Amino acid sequence: MARQQKTIITCAITGAIHTPTMSDALPYTADDIATQALDAAEAGASVLHLHARNPENGAVSINPVDFAAFLPRIKQATDAVVNISTGGSLKNTIEKRIAPALRFSPEMCSMNMGSMNFSFHPLARRFDAFKFDWEKEYIENSDTYIFRNTFADIENAATQLAPHGIKFEHECYDVGHLYNLKFCMDIGLFKAPIFIQFIFGILGGIGPEIDNLIFMKRTADRLFGEDYRWSVLGAGGAQMGLATTASQMGGNVRVGLEDSLFISRGKLAESNAQQVAKIRRIVEDLGCEVATPDEAREMLDLKGGDRVGF
Known about the structure:
Blueprint: E1 6-7, E2 9-12, H1 30-43, E3 47-50, E4 52-53, E5 60-61, H2 64-68, H3 71-77, E6 81-84, H4 94-97, H5 99-104, E7 108-112, E8 116-117, H6 134-140, E9 146-147, H7 151-161, E10 167-172, H8 175-186, E11 194-200, H9 210-224, E12 228-234, H10 239-248, E13 252-255, E14 262-264, E15 267-268, H11 272-285, E16 289-290, H12 293-300
Parallel strand pairs: 1-16, 2-3, 2-13, 3-6, 6-7, 7-10, 10-11, 11-12, 12-13
Antiparallel strand pairs: 4-5, 8-9, 14-15
């Protein structure tokens, strides 16, 4: 693909991996999620990738009520694209995980392109005490978790969400997920241009080496030609380095406290906006322009913020 002129910055605000003990900056109340999302948009994020949390204890939530507590505020205060997770929980069925998307009809949703081991259990050893009772067991037991998205699950979600005109952030944690996506396109589940998020560094997925990024992109070029746009998510310490490399390869970038709690080695980020500001500075210093929300909509062929349900 030809080098694009603008770089889309996605910010993933809170996610379903990190827990409140790991960082005081991780938002879990509706007010904090909304505030950090708006600050990230102000800092340069044109896409906001959103999960919900239980406002009482920070536990993962896929309850549409918890999304409703912050989505309208974000919509009223920014024109950034809202992207709702259809992952959100490692333990629930696809029917439950797409409930927020069905209710709120956002411009974008994430879509994991396959089932996989998905673990973060080594993080439990880093903490002697936890803020909330649920955290330690949740983290330790992740070595038993399988994130399920079978072909039937993917078809189910794509079919139910099709009437909403939602564009997917196709999350590919390994090269096989690219072939899964190609199969799904061939049977008509998704239409070009597709948006692929290459994900590196999750325990259970492909490792965060630049060689793997090059391999994933070369494979996507072969499978999808001019029919795709792409972005990179590097987990943990791989976040900024891989994002920088991706921007110089003509790709888009994703940062945020869902993916990494740090701003530099050994230093916790103060906010999502701090990470956005850093990658924006790097991207611009290296000669790229950052896309506005409307430019992102055009690049990704989105339906527009006036057609969401919140």
